Amino acid sequence: MTEYVGQSMPRYNGIGQVTGTARYVDDIQFPGMLYVKVLRSPVHKGTIRNLDLSAVAKTTGVAGVLTADDIPGQNAYGFYGDSQVFNPKQPRFKGEPIAAVVAVDEDTAMEALAKAKLDIEEQTPVFDMFEALKPNAPLVRPGTANNLFEYAPGKTTFVIKLGDIEKGFQEADHVIEGTYKEGMQDHCPMEPHVSVARIDDADRLEIYTHSQCLNVHLGFLCPVFNLPQSKINYIGGRCGGGFGGKNDIHCDHIAGLAALKFRKPVKFRFTRKEDLAYSTKRGPWVFEYKTGFKSDGRIVASHIREFHDSGAYTGLSPYCIEKCGMFASGPYAVPNILVEAQVIYTNKPVSSSMRGFAVLNGQVAMETQMSRIAEQLGLDPWELRFINAWRDGDMGASRYVVQGAGAIEAMRKCAELAGIQLPAKLMEMNSRRR
Amino acid sequence: MKHVLSFTLNGAPVDALVQATDTLLDVLREKIGLTGTKRGCDTGNCGACTVLIDNEPVNACLTIALTVTGKTVTTVEGLVEGSELHPLQKAFHEHGASQCGFCTSGMLMAAKALLDKHPQPSRSAIVEFMSGNLCRCGTYLEVIEAIQAVAGGK
Predict the structure, then answer these.
(1) What is d(CA A231, CA A339) in angstroms, rounded to the nearest whole number?
(2) pLDDT tens string for chain A (434 positions)?
(3) Measured between alpha carbons, how far is A189 from A275 in angstroms, rounded to an integer?
C-alpha cells in the first residue's frame, strides 16, 4: 500500500482520455441507428386538450412516435417515484417531455416534431416558493391539497431537534437573525445528457449510460420497461462530468423505450440548451437563521428554517433538506438546535442532487452568520470559528457523535496557505479537546 | 444535396460525402467516426471540439465542413507519433490534467497550437491562450503545469 498511499498516481484509465480513444456514450454509433427528439411542453403549466402526432409520424425518415401509451410498465420513475417519462395530461414545467419522435437523424426528427398539433390550455403557473405556499396558490401537482412535500400523511415539515432550543436562547447574551436566498444552479458538465440503447443478440435491452449510480437507475428503469434486471444490460463506466446531474435519469428511459418499440439502435441526446433549460438542478433555497451566542463567542442556540424549491417534481429534494439540516449549523459544537424544513413545489425544472446534496447551501448562510457574530462581538473571525469548531466527542444536530474532527487543523492550513499569521492561542488549539 | 469533401486528416487524404450545412465536427464524429473530438456545446463556447486547421486552433462545431476543402486538419487522434504519445499527452496524463476527460482533446489541441508557435510561453500567455477551453472539473492548474512541463523540456 505504501507505494500508493500519499503518492500522486496517474488515472488508471487516463491514457484513453489523452489519446481520444476513451469511449463516452455519444461516441457510440451503431449501423442503422435512429435518433430521438422530445416534444416538450411549451408552457410552464397547462392542460393538454388534444395531441395529434399523425403528421409527425408520416414524415419521411420518421420511424414513429413514442407516447405514454408506449410504456410497457409504469409512467413513473425517480428517487420518490413521481417523475413522468411522458406527461400526457398536465405538464408541470416548461420543457417537460410530452411525447417523442424517432427518426433517421436529429434534423428529420426536429422537422417532424414541428408538425405536432398540440392543443394545450395554458394555466397560471407559480414560480416563487412563498407564492406557492399561499392559500389559493396554483397547485403544481393536480389533485393535491397544497404545494408541500409530505414526509408522512399531513406531515409537511421535516424537523431536527438537539437539546432545548428555548433554554439555549435564554442562555444566550446576544441573538442575530438573517435571511439568506440562494438561486438555482445547473451542473453544466462538459458532456451533455445522452443515452444509446438497442436490443442485443440475447434479446436483452442494452443501454449505454453515463449514469452516476448505475444500480439505482437500473432499479428505476425496470418498472418503466416492465422488465426484470436480467433483461437489461445497463452499461456505464464513462461519465464526462456529472456533479450530481447524472444522478437522475434524463435520457436512458426514453432511449430504452424507443429501442424496445422499434428494435433498432437508438440515440437520444440533449443539446446544450436542453441540458441547461430542462435537466435537474441544484434548487433555490431560502434560509432563516436565528443564532444565539454568549459574549465570549460560544454559540448556544441555532434555530434554522429551510425552504427548498423542488421545482415540478420531488427529485432528491427531501433528502437534500435532511442532509442540509444535519449540517446547517456548520462544523460547530452547538448544544441546542432546531431545524424546520419544507420542500415546496413550483412550476420549474426539477431540483435534485448537486455536489454534496445541499450540505454546502446551509454553510453559506451559517458562515455569514458567523462573520456577523464576530463583527458584533469585535472578535477575530478566526478565533470565533476556532472556539466553536467541533472537537472529538461533540454532538452534531442529528445526535451523531463527532469523531476524527479536523476543522481547526483545516482552518490552520488555510491560514498558512493564505499567508495569514494566526495568534499563538489559536495555534495551540486542536480538534482532540476543547 | 451532398458534396464530396476532400482534405488531409491527421496526415492522410480523406474524402467524405457531406451536406452544405454539416459542420466539421459532424463530419469528424458522425461521418468519419473519429470521436476523440468532443461535442460539448455545439455553439463555440466550450472549446471541447478544438482541432487544428492548417495548424490554427479552431472550434470544429463552428466550422462549415466544406470550408476545409484542400486543407490540413489535425485532431487528437493525430497527436500520437508512431507508437509514442506526444509529450503533451504524456504530461497531461502525468500531471492529472484530465479528470473526466471530456475537455481534454480540445485542451491538447489548443496547447499544441500554442507550443508550436511559442515553445517557451510565459504562464500568463498559457492562461490567455487556453482561455477558450472550458473544464468543468477544474483541472486548469494541472493543465497549466502540464504545458509548462513540456515547454520546459521535462
Answers:
(1) 44
(2) 678 888 888 999 999 999 999 999 999 999 999 999 999 999 999 999 999 999 999 999 999 999 999 999 999 999 999 999 999 999 999 999 999 999 999 999 999 999 999 999 999 999 999 999 999 999 999 999 999 999 999 999 999 999 999 999 999 999 999 999 999 999 999 999 999 999 999 999 999 999 999 999 999 999 999 999 999 999 999 999 999 999 999 999 999 999 999 999 999 999 999 999 999 999 999 999 999 999 999 999 999 999 999 999 999 999 999 999 999 999 999 999 999 999 999 999 999 999 999 999 999 999 999 999 999 999 999 999 999 999 999 999 999 999 999 999 999 999 999 999 999 999 999 999 88
(3) 9
- Which residue segments constitute the domains of chain A, with CATH numbers given? 27-121+188-278 (3.90.1170.50), 158-185+281-427 (3.30.365.10)
Distances (CA, A) of A247 to A44, A275, A309, B10: 24, 14, 18, 37
B chain contacts of residue A271, beta-carbon cutoff 8 Å: 42
Q: Inspect the interface and report whether the beta carbons of A26 and B35 lie closer than 8 Å.
A: yes
The CATH number that domain B2-78 falls under is: 3.10.20.30
CA A361, CA A320: separation in Å to the nearest integer? Answer: 10
Distance from the B77 Cα atom to the nearest Cα atom in chain A, whole angstroms = 6
Looking at the structure, give the CATH architecture of the domain made up of residues B87-151.
Orthogonal Bundle (1.10)
| DSSP designation for B27 | I
State the CB neighbour count (10 A cutoff) for residue A399.
12
A193, A208 Cβ separation under 8 angstroms = no
Sort strands A266-269 and A34-40 into parallel, antiparallel or unpaired: parallel
The 8-class DSSP code of residue B68 comes to: G
- Cell numbers describing residue A357: 446534496
Q: Do B41 and A272 make contact, defined as CB atoms within 8 angstroms?
A: yes
Residue boundaries of the structural domains of chain B: 2-78, 87-151
Distance CA(A70)–CA(A218), nearest Å, equals: 19
Alpha-carbon Rg for chain A, nearest whole angstrom, is: 25
Residue A252 Cα, gap to closest chain B Cα (Å): 19
Residue B105 sits at the chain A interface (C-beta within 8 Å): yes
Q: Do A23 and B35 touch (CB under 8 A)?
A: yes
ipTM of the complex: 0.96
**B42 chain-A contacts, CB cut-off 8 A:** 271-272
Q: Which of A12, A13, A18 is the best residue to mutate to test the B interface, defined by the most B CB atoms within 10 Å of its own CB?
A: A18
Sign of CA dihedral A415, A417, A420, A423: positive
Q: How many CB atoms lie within 10 A of CB B123?
A: 12
**Residue reference for cell 472578535:** A379
**CB pair distance less than 8 Å for B93 and A22:** no
